[in-house]
């Protein structure tokens, strides 16, 4: 194993060009002892405040619904501030900016100043600093970056240099990803601490004293971060030393004349805890957490007892223990200054997380699938709205609308939100916030169109987003004979493809921006019992689109009978044992007599390969100590096969598809689109049946099977970026025990998974976070779950989503690629970006189609050219009044693709059509610290400059750019 010196590692801050203020917490640490043999105990008072879980975020803040949890975050801030002002040695660490920002804006200037003073004199340390403490399995990397950027920007605005945390704090997420740690390192964090790791890895790390280690977070970028797993099981104080209102431990009673005197017992117990913890560490410094969930509502109780603890332990040198108030950054500083301890390294991640041999927390990878999709859609809308606001210089009101969307998107990255592990009513509150964000996005889109759309002075009609389009419903066009379909592309590459919209007429004619008729496909909707609704459109209209990079294109849809129009296609029902084939230019799919796909033929090579897809479901354990629930996946037996499908087939010029109905609660459309590579598996699951008596948990999966020789190895993405190698029944960090053979081999999939051998690769891309495992020659991916028992991890209710009353129906899409291994990345890397930047559709009524095209700019692109397939314009957003934040990403890893895994240059000089770049400063990933590389033009008013950015594989570079709008 490679070993690194801690001192060298922690003092290597070459990327940063920042000098910390001398009054920040890490510069005014309470002193520790340098005496040999003395254990230095860093008492770290902290609170962990979930932005929603058992109660909504508002209820937690105000302290409402005390019968559920008798806490209020506003009181935590109030009482902590009061107590810290009583003695300068006292310390506290806050992590969640979402709550802090709310408190800050709710209070007077006097109270704001009190908080600022405590931060700027080092008594309060900001740790983590994101809007929330995000999940690490289900959150997309763009969402992680966005929520961290939002929180850190607020901290910097209020606290300056002291609002730039050095220590990341991920203490409650259920497992930890390599990409999360990598992003933190790129943001300038030097350390990260967490609590939840696999119980077997915890045992191994205790045994070899490796709770603290150097995490190598990217092979390509050579990034590292100091990481620490807590000694305690959790992130609270040792047993007997919880002094919060929520706790039941006795206080320190140090007056021997009073009944109940327990000082000697308390001190002895504490010293014993310290020495036990120190025996598993490699240095003389011990971090002792003093606080937990929503603690310090009564901070006086905490500090009164901690003051006594410090006084009496330090008052007797025989203990060999020195105790003092501290913060996580001061603890890291203590390690740096007091030791040259060599730490081990880690290359893998911390998935899956298991708290016991039967408690694998792999169910939440899939829990609440429709909410997970809603989260992803809001994120995509946020990227678009940030771009529109920045490109058109919309102004303060739209800036505020964009921030509303950003706050909602950030909130749901919380580790009990996107995970699907909050109570049903709390999840409903999250959904309301996302729905409001969609309405705010609609406002931003319309304000942008008011500025860009008209060719002259004309007020464009209102454009509407249809949030239920996946249910084939769009109220905005239900009674419109002619309407404008505008397709927005937030991707930095040309968008080509086919979009599907709900349609309410038997005829259709569509024209593009040039006035030319577009060949469309009109077809009867798939009549699935679970999706039937009086509001559902009877048809769907498929429209081929071409949209420029970071742009839009408008199509006029006319269903009036006076115009020459197409008529709908109806599905052909297939009789039993009839073989069916569908095809496009690249491949054909053959279906067997049971209605299941059986083989794939490549037209270019005329080779046919075995390829099967089928649904199964697991029954979940219902009783005992560990049922299957919102967090934990624990199947009761093998997967049960879902048998034969009834088929319908539609073959059109744009799309050929097979519609499968397996039973009243499982259906699917397998689709091949003209001009596109992936096979689309559009699955519809639910309502999962609930028996009247003794209902049984059911967890639905899909399996894709090939003849690829993958040797029980597969690869999953880490938050949508770097790929992680996984091997069945094996973990590189500890000796694997096969106690839960199915759930113990499940891993999070944020957007893709694949298997491969030397010749061919099967890649499945998802439209939301899901869980997956490996099969012999295939992949199994969980789609939906309905649990009728609580899994006893705190949410205290079963994962039984009501949907519209009888249970939740979930609909989603897998994009499946089967082809050569050597060219697979060249397809799936850009495709993953395309899926994230899915086209945003808006609809507007049109009175006169000819007049409409003359009055409005029907297509537009904010980029003069498409960026190459290896470059992702990740972020373009307002930063300050005359500057924007720009992120560019190289989406390929080293040695992943012969043509694309190499350094590439992007010229910014004349890239944008709506503004000119006048200066550029490189910053760290979250935008709150300057990086070492800077670019300046020779003079501000020059027409061109050498603004060329070089991107290495896997690199993300972030810039604050000064601009002049045209």
TrEMBL record:
InterPro entries with a match to the protein in the record: Gal_mutarotase_sf_dom, GH38_C, Glyco_hydro/deAcase_b/a-brl, Glyco_hydro_38_C, Glyco_hydro_38_cen, Glyco_hydro_38_cen_sf, Glyco_hydro_38_N, Glyco_hydro_38_N_sf
Organism: Haemonchus contortus
GO CC term, one of those recorded: lysosome
Domain Glycoside hydrolase family 38 central: 359-434
The protein's name in its UniProt record: Alpha-mannosidase
Family: Belongs to the glycosyl hydrolase 38 family.
GO molecular function (one): metal ion binding
Cofactor: Zn(2+)
Record has GTP-binding as a keyword: no
EC number: 3.2.1.-
Cofactor note: Binds 1 zinc ion per subunit.
Record's keyword terms, sorted: Disulfide bond, Glycoprotein, Glycosidase, Hydrolase, Metal-binding, Signal, Zinc
Catalytic activity, reaction form: Hydrolysis of terminal, non-reducing alpha-D-mannose residues in alpha-D-mannosides
């Amino acid at each position: 194993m490679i070993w690194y010196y801690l001192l060298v590692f922690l003092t290597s801050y070459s990327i940063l060009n920042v000098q910390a203020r001398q009054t920040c917490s890490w510069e005014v640490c309470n002193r520790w002892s340098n005496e040999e043999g003395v254990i230095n105990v860093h008492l770290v008072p902290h609170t962990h405040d979930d932005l929603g879980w058992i109660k909504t975020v508002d209820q937690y803040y105000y302290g409402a619904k005390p019968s559920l949890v008798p806490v209020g975050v506003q009181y935590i801030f109030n009482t902590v501030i009061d107590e810290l002002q009583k003695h300068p040695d006292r310390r506290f660490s806050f992590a969640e900016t979402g709550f802090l920002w709310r408190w800050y804006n709710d209070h007077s200037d006097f109270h704001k100043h009190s908080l600022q003073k405590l931060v700027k004199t080092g008594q309060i340390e900001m740790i983590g600093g994101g809007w929330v403490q995000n999940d690490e399995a289900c959150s997309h990397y763009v969402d992680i970056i966005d929520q961290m950027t939002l929180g850190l920007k607020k901290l910097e605005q209020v606290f300056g240099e002291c609002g730039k945390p050095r220590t990341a704090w991920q203490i409650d997420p259920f497992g930890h990803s390599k990409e999360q740690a990598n992003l933190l390192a790129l943001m300038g964090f030097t350390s990260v601490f967490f609590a939840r790791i696999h119980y077997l890895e915890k045992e191994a790390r205790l045994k070899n004293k490796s709770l603290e280690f150097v995490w190598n977070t990217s092979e390509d970028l050579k990034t590292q971060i100091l990481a620490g797993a807590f000694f305690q099981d959790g992130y609270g104080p040792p047993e007997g030393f919880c002094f919060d209102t929520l706790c039941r431990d006795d206080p320190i009673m140090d007056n021997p004349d009073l009944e109940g005197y327990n000082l000697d017992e308390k001190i002895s117990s504490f010293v014993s805890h310290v020495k036990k913890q120190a025996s598993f560490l490699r240095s003389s410094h011990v971090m002792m957490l003093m606080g937990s969930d929503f603690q310090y509502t009564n901070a006086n109780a905490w500090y009164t007892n901690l003051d006594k603890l410090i006084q009496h332990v330090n008052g007797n040198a025989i203990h060999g223990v020195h105790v003092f108030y501290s913060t996580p950054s001061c603890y890291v500083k203590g390690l740096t200054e007091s030791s040259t301890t060599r730490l081990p390294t880690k290359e893998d991640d911390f998935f899956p997380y298991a708290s016991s041999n039967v408690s694998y927390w792999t169910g939440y990878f899939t829990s609440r699938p429709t909410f997970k999709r809603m989260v992803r859609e809001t994120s995509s809308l946020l990227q678009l709205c940030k771009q529109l606001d920045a490109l058109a210089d919309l102004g303060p009101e739209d800036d505020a609308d964009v921030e509303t969307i950003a706050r909602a998107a950030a909130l749901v990255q919380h580790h009990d939100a996107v995970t699907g592990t909050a109570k049903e009513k709390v999840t409903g509150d999250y959904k309301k916030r996302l729905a409001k964000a969609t309405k705010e996005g609609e406002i931003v889109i319309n304000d942008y169109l008011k500025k860009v759309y008209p060719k002259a002075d004309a007020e464009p009609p209102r454009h509407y987003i249809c949030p239920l389009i996946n249910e084939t419903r769009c109220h905005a066009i239900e009674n419109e004979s002619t309407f404008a379909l505008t397709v927005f592309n937030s991707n930095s590459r040309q968008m080509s493809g086919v979009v599907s919209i709900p349609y309410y007429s038997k005829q259709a004619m569509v024209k593009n921006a040039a006035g030319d008729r577009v060949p469309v496909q009109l077809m009867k909707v798939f009549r699935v019992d679970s999706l039937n609704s009086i509001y559902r459109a009877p048809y769907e209209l498929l429209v081929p689109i071409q949209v420029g990079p970071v742009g839009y294109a408008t199509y006029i849809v006319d269903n009036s009978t006076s115009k020459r129009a197409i008529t709908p296609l109806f599905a052909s029902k297939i009789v039993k044992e009839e073989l069916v084939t569908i095809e496009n230019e690249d491949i054909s799919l053959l279906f067997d007599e049971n209605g299941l796909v059986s083989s794939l033929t490549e037209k270019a090579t005329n080779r046919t390969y075995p390829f099967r897809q089928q649904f199964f479901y697991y029954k979940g354990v219902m009783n005992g100590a560990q049922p299957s629930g919102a967090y934990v996946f624990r199947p009761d037996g093998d997967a049960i096969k879902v048998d034969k499908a009834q088929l319908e087939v539609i073959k059109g010029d744009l799309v050929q598809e097979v519609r499968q109905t397996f039973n009243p609660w499982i259906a699917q459309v397998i689709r091949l689109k003209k001009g596109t590579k992936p096979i689309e598996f559009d699955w519809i699951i639910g309502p999962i049946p609930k028996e009247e008596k003794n209902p049984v948990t059911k967890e639905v999966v899909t399996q894709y099977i090939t003849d690829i020789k993958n040797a029980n190895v597969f690869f999953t993405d880490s938050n949508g970026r770097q790929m992680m190698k996984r091997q069945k029944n094996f973990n590189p960090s500890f000796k694997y025990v096969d106690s839960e053979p199915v759930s113990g081999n499940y891993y999070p999939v944020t957007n893709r998974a694949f298997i491969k051998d030397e010749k061919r690769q099967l890649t499945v891309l998802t439209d939301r976070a899901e869980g997956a495992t490996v099969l012999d020659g295939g992949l199994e991916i969980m789609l939906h779950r309905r649990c009728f028992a609580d899994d006893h991890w705190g949410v205290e209710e079963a994962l039984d989503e009501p949907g519209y009353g009888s249970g939740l129906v979930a609909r989603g899409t897998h994009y499946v690629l089967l082809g050569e291994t050597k060219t697979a990345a060249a397809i799936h890397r850009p495709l993953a970006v395309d899926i994230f930047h899915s086209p945003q559709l808006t609809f507007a009524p049109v009175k006169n189609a000819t007049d409409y095209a003359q009055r409005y700019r029907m297509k537009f692109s904010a980029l003069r050219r498409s960026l190459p397939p290896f470059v992702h314009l990740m972020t373009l957003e307002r930063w300050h009044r005359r500057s924007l934040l720009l992120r560019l990403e190289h989406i390929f890893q080293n040695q992943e693709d012969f043509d694309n895994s190499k350094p590439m240059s992007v010229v910014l000089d004349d890239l944008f059509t709506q503004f000119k770049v006048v200066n550029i400063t490189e910053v760290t990933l979250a935008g709150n610290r300057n990086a070492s590389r800077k670019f300046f033009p020779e003079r501000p008013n020059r027409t061109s400059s050498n603004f060329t950015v070089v991107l290495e594989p896997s690199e993300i570079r972030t810039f604050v750019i000064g601009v002049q709008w045209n």
